[in-house]
Design brief:
This protein is of the alpha/beta class. 30% of the residues lie in helices and 24% in strands. Among the domains are: 151 residues, Rossmann fold, CATH 3.40.50.980; 102 residues, GMP Synthetase, Chain A, domain 3 (2-Layer Sandwich). Helix 11 links the parallel strand 12 and strand 13. This is Long-chain fatty acid--CoA ligase. One of its GO terms (molecular function) is acid-thiol ligase activity.
Length: 535
């Protein structure tokens, strides 16, 4: 499989926005070192606040070390895989860092997965140990009859091998494992990846620490170590929250204001009480804030830095939230294979709404055509990324690794363009591109137009088979509350905004669109549903 070899002849205009940014010295340590350092610097500072329970950095490290000490007694070995299948809870952070102290590999698992989904991951990664909560308990119980674990440990207090019991009875770990940051895998993050099949991205200690440091530098002087409070409502088992809320929070010595789920009334009350300063959210959360009845009565001015990931953020939602908080949301881009962040709109200085921003410091990017040749500005092609945060490869899957990683570049499968100032724009997924009678249609362009309509809350556009043109565009629309949508009017609106061949052939009104647990739109389910109609 061929790959681009260009290294230094393309233009990188985004470098102009790095002025004043010191060159980054990427740390050659283990992920556990993040907690070690902050516990030394800020021992009395709250590390976690969860349901009014406060855990200081000293207490957090003590609990991590005691759990790791007991795990070592259980003959846990460096390189063993441990699944964390639980919703947001202090135990997640404790188990995550205890595993890193021992050189184990964390496999992050959605506790709401079905038995089939869970077995797919456990069989592929060959999990040795599993930590689970009450949400996952039923599936874990069923899995025990099919898959053999060395140990399954609940976070409920019952049993000698429950996490609370192991913490309470543990003797602190005397010495942590010695890891090779570049080679040793810290996390296996399962993802649909660039080809849609479930694969485990191997993220090394160096990958994860590099992305934390990149993120911190990207925020410039707006983040003050030992002074920030992170509003952590996105699931920690998701790579975005793992880095942007948990690992970055620990690195900064921040207080992690942790929520089991996104319960907006509870979160709003907690914002008034604890005054968080940093919110790594997803579009669905920002939409909920913006549309919450009486939101104007809450003081959200404490939020000085906000970022959005997982999916494109509609412009109208961004405007509403920024007006409420007097801050701005830094749109960005990332993927599991990149730990995950690669681009971000800076919180200060220039930003471009609708853009994913500029590459993180230390990150290189190219846009290439189908022959792997670099393209110039304003040209649409596949986005390639290189940098210290790029994964080692896919777990036990060399064929997929060879497709994704070529000559030092990660082929993202996303279509993008770069403007003359070095700001990047995602046009769509390579596999989502619709070809109608030879014309390339990018769903995101149509969706952006639909989101501008005052009656539309959400929109998704996919390609469906067509005998006449090979493919046709279909738009799925969720109307705003108490609004009746006239599809003929919507179609006319699209014709006023788009070239005729880009206007969807079909429109369908839905009460909601299929999304995963962090709000990412699952377009493939819409396509599957359409295909089933044709049978």
């Amino acid at each position: 499989m061929g790959g681009v070899r260009l290294q230094n002849t393309d233009i990188r205009p985004w470098h102009q926005w790095y002025k004043g940014l010191e060159p980054i010295d990427f740390p050659e340590h283990s992920v556990y070192s993040l907690l070690q350092t902050s516990a030394e610097r800020y021992p009395a500072r709250p590390a976690i606040i969860y349901e009014k329970e406060v855990i200081t950095y000293h207490e957090l490290k003590s609990q991590v070390d005691c759990l790791a000490g007991n795990w070592r007694k259980m003959k846990v070995k460096q390189g063993d895989r441990i699944g964390l299948m639980l919703a947001n809870h202090p135990a997640y952070i404790i188990c995550y860092y205890a595993a890193q102290a021992l050189g184990m590999i964390v496999v992050q698992i959605n506790p709401m997965y079905t038995l089939r989904e869970f077995l797919q991951i456990s069989n592929d990664s060959k999990i040795d140990y599993l930590v689970f909560d009450d949400i996952a308990e039923k599936v874990v119980s069923e899995a025990k009859h099919i898959y053999t674990f060395k140990e399954c440990m609940p976070i409920s207090p019952q049993g000698v091998n429950s996490i609370p019991s192991l913490i309470k009875s543990g003797v602190p770990l005397e010495s942590c494992a010695v890891v090779n940051p570049h080679d040793d895998v810290a996390v296996i993050q399962y993802t649909g990846g660039t080809t849609g099949k479930m694969k485990g991205a191997m993220l090394t200690h160096f990958n994860l620490l590099s992305n934390v440091v990149q993120s911190f530098h990207m925020y410039g002087g707006s983040m003050i170590p030992g002074k920030e409070t992170v509003l952590a409502a996105t699931p920690l088992y998701h790579v975005y929250a793992m880095t942007s809320a948990m690992n970055l929070g620990i690195y900064m010595g921040a207080t992690i204001l942790l929520f089991r789920k996104f319960d907006l009334p509870v979160i709003l009350d907690s914002i008034q009480l604890y005054r968080p300063t940093f919110f790594p959210g997803v579009p669905k959360m920002y939409a909920a804030f913006s549309m919450f009845p009486g939101i104007e009565t809450y003081d959200l001015s404490c939020l000085k830095i906000c970022s959005s990931g997982s999916a494109p953020l509609p412009l109208e939602i961004m405007k509403k939230f920024e007006a409420l908080t007097n801050t701005r949301i830094g749109e960005g881009y990332g993927l599991s294979e990149a730990s995950p962040s690669t681009h971000r709109n800076p919180p200060i200085g220039k930003r471009k709404v609708g853009s994913i921003g500029i590459p993180m410091p230390g990150t290189d990017c190219l846009i290439v055509d189908e022959n792997h040749q670099p393209l110039g500005v304003q040209c649409v092609g596949e986005l390639l990324i290189s940098g210290p945060q790029i994964m080692k490869g896919y777990w036990n899957n060399q064929d997929e690794t060879d497709l994704a990683l070529r000559n030092g570049w990660l082929y993202t499968g996303d279509l993008a363009l770069m403007d003359q100032e070095g700001f990047f724009y995602i046009v769509g997924r390579k596999k989502e591109m619709i070809i109608i009678s030879g014309f390339n249609i990018y769903p995101q362009e149509i969706e952006s137009v639909l989101y501008e309509h005052p009656d539309i809350q959400e929109a998704a556009v996919v390609g469906i088979p067509s005998l006449e043109a090979g493919e046709a565009a279909k738009a799925f629309i969720v109307p705003n509350e108490n609004v009746e949508i006239d599809l003929d009017e919507i179609k006319g609106y699209c014709y006023s905004k788009l070239t005729p061949y880009k206007v969807p052939k079909e429109f369908e009104i839905r009460s909601e669109l299929p999304r995963n647990t962090v709000g990412k739109l699952l377009k493939r389910l819409l396509v599957i549903q359409e295909m089933e109609k044709e049978k």
